[in-house]
Amino acid sequence: MKIIVLNGSPKGDISVTMQYINYIQKKFKQHELKIINISQRINQIEKDKEAFESIISDVKSGDGVIWAFPLYVFTVHSNYQRFIELIFERDVEDAFQGKYTSVLATSIHFFDHTAINYINSICNDLNMNYVDYFSLHMYDLEKEDIRKNLLKFVQNYFDAIENEVITLKNYSPVKYSTISYIPEFTHDKIDVLNKKIVIVADSLENINLKNMIDKFRSSFSQSIELVNLQDINTKGSCVGCLKCGYNYECVYTNKDDFINFYNSKLKTADIIVFAGTIKYRHLSSIWKRFFDRGFFNTHTPSLSGKQIGFIISGPLNQMPNSRQILESYTQWQGSNLVGFITDEYDTSIEIDKQLHAFAYNLIKLSTVNYSKPTTFLGVAGMKIFRDEIWGKIRFPFIADHKAYKALNVYDFPQKNYKSRIINSILILMSKFPPIRKEIYSNKMKSSMIEPLKKIVEDETV
């Protein structure tokens, strides 16, 4: 069989992900795995009609497609996403229809599920036969048990093609028709109270998005700055070189305007509103390039303490995966997510009211410096970074290591000596049946709330 491997790494053949593909090829010599470097060649693919058509021809002639990619900031690389946009924009979905496909992803397991879900949904939209996914840590190839499991995954994929198995659809088609939003309702103006507000958009071509942004800006007494990402001189997306790991210096430093924009506009803002249009299951590849390029800050939060909100045109409520990506991004950044405003309403007046309430809440919460506690999305994500930076990837990410020490990110539980001593005593006591019965039957519930009751009852707090 001939399998087309769509490589999502900007590093091309020398990517970690492709080492797994090379290993698969070595073990399944009877099949041909043709690697096409999508992310590395995206400029050529987009500009050169023949280059794009050659890839589509390969997909048509192939027996299957493997989407192989490294994780980049909660999902795939922006260049990979741009290729997906081109598939739909150039109406070549039929080349993918009916093809058996699987996903091979590499990462440190930081939100690998959202990247996989995104590609899975795209495969379903393309009417492909989605077989399965295999998510790997960057260096899992060193582990014999993982290698064996990987080969089982690949064999299952080949068997599915050979036997034309029926595959499951995990995502339903998006059904979206919106009203033409025209602001109708006028509210009292809101004073920004010396707060710096920045709106960042990927385009103003979508009339609904433009009108929502205009309405939001008009909610305030003062002028609100709007930045269009297309107006910023940005040479390209993240190239995965990791030069930033040493001291946050990017390979693009002094070569374009992105870093200056990020540092001067966003890091100095009190309130940031991201505005964009849903394009094929996520915000646009222009937005994705923004998130990828923001990685010059590596794994160190750079927007901590800010109020963040989203104005989105499109069926966000039908895309919980995309919503989770954006929510997770704000939690990891240490920002407070105020909310999402979309054009998924029956009337313009409803949108007007939502935008005004959104504007009011942004100012109010910024004034009192409010931040919600993080959920699993922020807590678990940061613990993965903590452990990885402490361990195997401390080099090359020296800047992260220094920042994590300064920010007390290295809060390993084993440093809590009081808990260790108490746990040791209680574990020893529980070995005696009468004591164990007393603890679990009569003491457990009241013991759990005892330290909290003391705080509640203490009038000095």
UniProtKB/TrEMBL annotation:
One of its GO terms (molecular function) is oxidoreductase activity. Residues 1-108 form the NADPH-dependent FMN reductase-like domain. InterPro entries: Flavoprotein-like_sf, FMN_Rdtase-like_dom, ISF_SsuE-like. Keywords: Flavoprotein, FMN. Pfam families: FMN_red. The keyword Flavoprotein applies. Signal peptide: none annotated. This is Multimeric flavodoxin WrbA.
